[in-house]
Amino acid sequence: MEYVVGIDLGTTNTCVAIVEQGVPKVIPNKGGYRTTPSMVAMSESSKRLVGHLAKRQVVTNPANTIYAAKRLIGRKWNSTAGRTVAQTCPYTIVEGPHGDIRLKVREHVYSVPEISAFILAEMKMVAEQYLGGPVEKAVITVPAYFNDNQRQATKDAGRIAGLEVIRIINEPTAAALAYGFGKNLERKVAVYDLGGGTFDVSILDIGHGVFEVISTAGDTFLGGENFDLRVMQYLIETFEEETGVAIREDRMAMQRLKDAAEKARCELSNVRETVIDLPFLHTTPSGKVFHMHEALTAQQLEGLTEDLIDDTIKICARTLASASLDKKELDDVVLVGGMTRMPLVQRKVAEFFGIEPCKGVHPDEVVALGAAIQAAALVDNTPELLLLDVTPHSLGIMIVGGYFHRLIEQNTTIPTRAGHVFTTVRDNQTSVKILVLQGESDKAAENEMLGEFILSGLRRAPRGQVEVEVTFSISVDGIVSVSAKDLETGREQSITVTATSGLTEDELRDLVRQSQSYMIELRASEEIERRRQHAEKLVDTIRNLFPQVEDAMSGTRFGRDAMAKAEAVVQRAEQDLSRGDGKGLLDTIDSLDRTLGMFKNVMHKKSEAAHR
Description:
With 612 residues, this protein is an alpha+beta fold. The protein has helices at 52-56, 80-88, 112-131, 148-160, 171-180, 224-243, 251-267, 298-322, 343-353, 366-380, 505-552, 557-579, 585-611, and strands spanning 3-9, 13-20, 23-26, 36-37, 39-42, 48-50, 65-67, 92-95, 101-105, 108-111, 135-142, 164-170, 186-194, 199-207, 210-219, 273-283, 289-297, 332-336, 386-388, 395-399, 403-408, 416-423, 431-438, 448-456, 467-474, 480-486, 492-497.
């Protein structure tokens, strides 16, 4: 049977879901948790730790624990986001060979898609253990406002993890799918999605199984991490004012503060006041120890972060305007993402939209559930479910004067196609360079460049006389193609714009191979560990039965020989276990099984004799 899962690759947590017998459900991990922290660490022995294992040791190993990698995925080294994270995180960020961001952990440098792939591979294993079969296909969600490079980087992460990403869909759209699934609704809905690292808002028209996105907007660098940073900065400044001690260079103290800030922010969604208690937070070179004991109220938290929430409301206003809708035309506002648990967020959203937000969906799980619904629909070719999404950014080319000319406007339903006729700008111009851009600024330099190509062989003529038609098309998968055609001669040149994650095809193939080898080794070591635990249980069971079996067979030569052989089998098993000889355990387990069988047979015969 072919299994296809939906994965919400989040900034803070990641969630995997599947549709079983028509019902979407979240798959819990080995620990029983329904979400897994989006964290990766390397231990001193270079063992890879993912999820809860990574989170448990982050305070003692902050420099080698990567969190919130999603905020960096698909971004350039010289981006504002890259610089901001580099200044505030305890791990090391370096420039990659292609102007991308890389992460240094111990002595190894990783690309951001690699780190994300480690988390996706963990989700793949979680799903496989639950389903009892291989999982090779997935729908993965991304923030609606992700650009082409960020989407491609996410797709590359899936490929490295051994997954065929059959579709990338937007998080608010996935949430709307889960919200409306199986309900035959006719409603206009706003999805307000404030997660750990990103914010999106999408307006959808839902009717009879058709989910049509009307408009979408967001900020890919606004989320819970920003809120935690505000609390952190407040605590640092308060500590430094009270003690006169600077702690910004103390990595362990900073990580403890970050954890405490996140914990306090979460607690203040349910209580009016919490206490941040961090004993032995910092020790000076002279040996003087400083502790932190600081109360924080919900009112203080709101004062520190209200402007961040206001920023999201401004984006909501722009999205409504773009959709040409009045707030009164909306039937529901759906809250998605862990940050929407904050009471001030809920109050501001209710105040802006004029309706109480719908709380009928689980903010941490709804996106993964929606991805699973889309995955099932794609595989089963479900006719009663149709998803019509939009391009979140305008697409166009650079024109004379360094300006950006849009050919496809933001919030255009995809797939789509659009063209425009341009003329030459210089006398005797025989070629034209087409710079393909994505963004909302009127200045070309302020937008993201997706690619470039040259149309040559134009007729020499005074400027303005040679016409070139430029055509853009976006497929249902969001792949952008651009062509330029000399209308006089019919000569045409085109490119498929290939967004880049910062990894070359050779690097990707290499990483896929490495990932496959790692997973084979991991499964082998897990199998050895399973055998070892099984052998230990058998040894304990046989040892516990020794006195009873010895008593049952006492006085017979067969009994003495059998007990001697049993003792020899157990001792050999204990030696194998102490040596950690995993490969030899199969034979050992076989011998132990036979010995236990013999013991049970003896005990059964004794029981029968007693009842005669």
